[in-house]
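hey
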């Protein structure tokens, strides 16, 4: 029983160290992670719009691809114009604090 508790405490310490390491890496490469996240989201917008236009609505693939690219580019543009992720999080937190 004592050995099991020791292993649980050791596991908690290992997880805590791993979390601290992830936080350090996040802060070190903060801008990279933000751009990677929203780059992924722009790619997701592109793929979803293409799929809807081409597969669901049966549009031609060149038309579908063009519209998907334009919408993904607009998504990225408006994200950059809005001030980025930190501004969006601050707005969300302000909205949530007003609701409660």
């Amino acid at each position: 029983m004592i050995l099991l508790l020791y292993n649980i405490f050791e596991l908690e310490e290992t997880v805590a160290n791993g979390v601290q390491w992830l936080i350090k890496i996040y802060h070190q490469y903060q801008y990279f992670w933000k751009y990677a996240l929203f780059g992924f989201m722009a790619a997701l917008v592109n793929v979803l719009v293409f799929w809807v236009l081409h597969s669901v609505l049966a549009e031609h693939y060149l038309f579908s691809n063009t519209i998907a690219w334009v919408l993904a580019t607009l998504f990225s543009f408006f994200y950059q114009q809005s001030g980025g992720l930190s501004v969006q999080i601050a707005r969300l937190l302000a909205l949530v604090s007003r609701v409660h």
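The mean pLDDT is 81. The chain has four helices and no strands.
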